[in-house]
Each structure stands twice: as C-alpha cells, then as structure tokens.
Structure prediction request, 412 residues.
Amino acid sequence: MAPSVVHAAVGLLFLLASAHGKYCPTTCGVADYLFRYLPDIDRDLTYMENDLEHIANMTVDTEEKVVIMKDSATAAQKSSPSENYIKKSANMLEDVIRYEKTIFAQEKQIFDLQNILASNQRRMAELETMSNQLKMKCQEPCQDSVVIQPTTGTDCQDVANKGATTSGLYYIKPAAAPEPFLVYCEIDEYRRGFTVIQRRRDGSVDFNKNWVQYKNGFGYLSPDDTTEFWLGNEKIHWLTVGATIPTVLRIDLVDWQGNKKHADYNMFALSPEIDMFRLTYGFYLGGDAGDAFAGFDFGDDPSDKFYTMHNGQQFSTPDKDNDKYDGNCAQQDGSGWWMNRCHAAHLNGKYYQGGRYTAKDAGEYGFDNGIIWVTWHDRWYSLKETTMKLIPLTRLAAEGTQQGGMKQFGGL
Ligand SMILES: [Ca+2]
Prediction:
C-alpha cells in the first residue's frame, strides 16, 4: 500500500509542476485552471493523510507485538531452559528482528511521505498565493497596457495643433512618408509638439547597431517617456524633407549632477539613404550647451575643429564607413553618427554610469566614445540623459515669450 501512495504523491507533484510550467506566466487561464484543480488536490492530500495515519497505526501495532514477543521470549528463557523452549525462543527472536526491520522500513516510508506531504503543502500555498494574485489581476479586463493616442497628423506639432495636449505615443504621417509610423510626442503647456527622434536616459539600450538598425530605428517607445530609442534615419529624413516651415533640431542634455542645457539648430534635415542620411542645418540658433556640431579645437592639431565639425557629414555605422578618417570612427566608437574624423558631439555614444571615464574604460581602441557634447563637458565625460527632438521654427519661441503671456501662442 505505502509504495503506491508514494507513487501517487510523486504523480501529484509532477502534475503541479508541469501545469505551472505549461501555463505560466501569460494568461488569465492559469487562475481558472488552478481553481478547477484545487479541490482534486485537496482530496488527494486527504487520502494521503489517511494512508499515513493507517501506516502509523500499523507501526504502533507492530511495536506492541514486538514488545509482547520480547517479553514472552525472555519469560520462556527464564521459565524453561529446555532445548524446545530455546528453539522456540530463537524463532521468536527471529520474528522480533523481522518485525523490527518492518518497523524501520515503515518508519522510513512515513518519513518520506511526510516530506512529500510537506513539500506539496508548501507548493500548494505558493500556487494559492499565485492564483489569488492572478484572480485579482484578471478581475480587470485583459487589455494592451500601452496607450496610443487617437490624434494623428504630419508631425507632433500638427497633432498638438489639432488639440492634443498630452505627451505620449501618436501615429504620424509626414507628407513624404509612405505610411504612418509611431512616435513619442512631447507636448508642453504652450501646446508645442516636439517629435522626439532620440532618447538616452539610463543606458538600457545598446546604441552599437548596424546600418539597417539605424535606418529603421531601434530601442523602445513608451507612452510615459521611460525608455531609450533611435527613431530611425529614414523617418527622420521623411520628417525633415521638403518642410515648408524650417525644422529646428533641439538637443536637450542632462549631466550627472542634474544640470540641464540645450542647443538648437535651424533648418535641420537628413538627406535620403542614397546620400547616406547626410546631416545638414542652416545655422546654430543658440542654447546654453554651446555649438558642438561646429567642431572643437581640442589643442591636439590645428585642424581639430575642421575635422570634428558635423554639418554636412554623412551617417556612418560600424558596418558602413562614410567618415573622413583613414580608419572607421563608428566601428572604433561603437555607434552610429554623422562621423567626421571623428566628432565633437557624439550623442549615440557608449553609456557610462557616473559620467567620467578613461581611455582604458573605452576598450580596444581607447578613443573617447562616450555620450559627448564637448562645448559643455570635455570628451572624457559622458552625459546622463539626451533628447533630440524636432519642432517647426515658428513654434520654438514659446519659451522666450513666457513673460509676454501664453495667450499669444495658445490660440495658434
Ligand atoms: Ca573611414
């Protein structure tokens, strides 16, 4: 009897384990499943408890028998030394040994069964907790938790002009784009709609990607602006080609002390892929972060500034070298960017926790490969957060008119 109980108990464990593995962790069906099978499991456990009690009773009986037999053997030895009694006594002692073996075996089975029972009870408690959690969760209707706003437009400013006031995910379709695509729109209190094309905030996304990935975009868009991404060169091209109002690229930067600075570039555009997504802009509009796109005189060589300016540079990735350097800047720095020979600004660089890093930290090539804006912090300081976003020039000025009042822009 006992071995079959063990077998049943092992089978029960297997049922629990396999059911858990098969259904976890996706659907509300798991809770239903558990509730359906819990009564059966409870019943099986009750059977097992009864069996255990039965075995324990048998053991007690056997122990009592052994005591009686031991007593009678001793009594027999004492009362009669005759050979017959000795023989009988020897037989009885053999019986005693046999019974003791049985007791030992049964005690071991009881011990094993108790372990299985305890383990099953633990497992059931866990499953009950899990099923309660799922039950609570499933009381709300299952739905996609990412909210995409209903308004659409040619860009985020168009979306804001149509009445959208919440920052979040929107589908937009610039005139040049063959189909709509998803973007994060940052809409502020002045109803300015910035179309965000790049976001760094915590190093959660690796920006060491190839040409196709930079072309199509990578990372994650989130409705609450909590994730990192590159929107994609092709989409940036569609957003900036043939704009009737000049497009401003705003760059927002945050350092590891929490200081914030920005830089604005007017008439920003990316050429099509056939021209390697070349970066062009009309002029530096201003900002307190300085004009790092214009290049920087590092003091290494008189040509430093000329060879680190970014206006007019084609895009390069580790697998597509379009730079002005004998080597491959994008490969050496592990990023995609408008590389010259190589850079004074480098916002797709490697993420360094804490900001400061050294040539040794930079790995194999030892060049400055962090998130760099050299007119603010030097090239061995990697910024904490960056945002690159687009807005029509006519809407940029809202900040500057704060004192003049919001009304001036509220109606546009
Ligand atoms: Ca090269």
